[in-house]
């Protein structure tokens, strides 16, 4: 049974967290809920909980100081921080101090809390693995940088360099390739066959490892339960392409899900890792037009174009067709609209916004 300590100066938040999920079903027990960091630290020293959930802004002792003290005494204790939208700088400080992940109070839901607790438990279990503490810390620091970057936090390149300076990454300095992977249509899968999100990550990790030869040096770093990167120490591009295709094929065969991968070109220095990482993440949006289970090369570049509303009349014509109940014409216009988006390679987000705009106005009719 995993012991859980909750610290937040808002009584409602403490009550909500304690009652939001079935802790027993997750083999966890909330041993205490406290209103400040000082009391939380006292209980931590007495009981040594495996999991601590803490607010960042508290009286007596704030969340950053609490995390720092906890990590000095127990590296294996996993800390989750609670934040508001305006706490970006504090969240970064918390991640640097050793927090596992963060949750936004305003969007906190049962599924999200369950997901992160399940993932935290796995991290606790991995604490006893053969990987030494130095290696785990290096991977964790790089993982935190990538999580924050992907969520549009501004990360100083020095933070990446500090993480990549760990011994575990030194041999990648001469050359490497970076592969960003993500399960396609993940929201539908989470509603269906993979309601236990951490189980999906475990299955993905096993299949990725089985698909890569022991003679290819690599690191698999998950950013979420359904996405992550593979850092390959290889200058053989065709070999890595073959491995990536094998990974996608095996995951489709054994899990019956599609996974797409975006692969960087061969890199000769880790100094630009942050740029290369964001390039593969952004290039992965090509999947919007390429379909499911595809291998994308980041050097294809960002070929998206902005949607120019003044040049379009599809929405006007479509709304007129719906108003006249000419649904055959409406369907033809929908096909023309989608064809225009594909041929002009419009930014995926703008395609969705345009579609939502049409649907909302159609409903009004």
Radius of gyration: 23 Å
Q: Regarding quaternary structure, how should these chains be classified?
A: single chain
Strand content: 15-25%
The overall number of domains is 3
Q: SSE order in H/E notation?
A: EHEHEHEHEHHHEHHEEHEHHEHHH
The average pLDDT value, as a whole number, equals 87
**Helical run tally:** 15
CATH architecture of the largest domain: 2-Layer Sandwich
Q: Tell me, what's the shape? A: globular
- Enumerate the spans where pLDDT stays under 50 for 5 or more consecutive residues: none
What is the fold named in CATH at topology level of the largest domain? Alpha-Beta Plaits
Give helix % range. Answer: 40-55%
CATH superfamily of the largest domain: Reverse transcriptase/Diguanylate cyclase domain
- Output the strand order for the largest sheet: 2-1-3-4-5
The tally of beta strands, per DSSP, is 10
CATH class of the largest domain: Alpha Beta
Describe the protein's architecture and organization.
It is a single chain. This protein has 365 residues and is α/β, with parallel strands linked by helices. The protein folds into 3 domains: 1-129, Rossmann fold; 171-303, 2-Layer Sandwich (Alpha-Beta Plaits); 309-364, no CATH class. The chain contains 15 helices and 10 strands. Strands 2-1-3-4-5 form a 5-stranded parallel beta sheet, with helices on both faces. The longest helix has 19 residues, at 237-255.
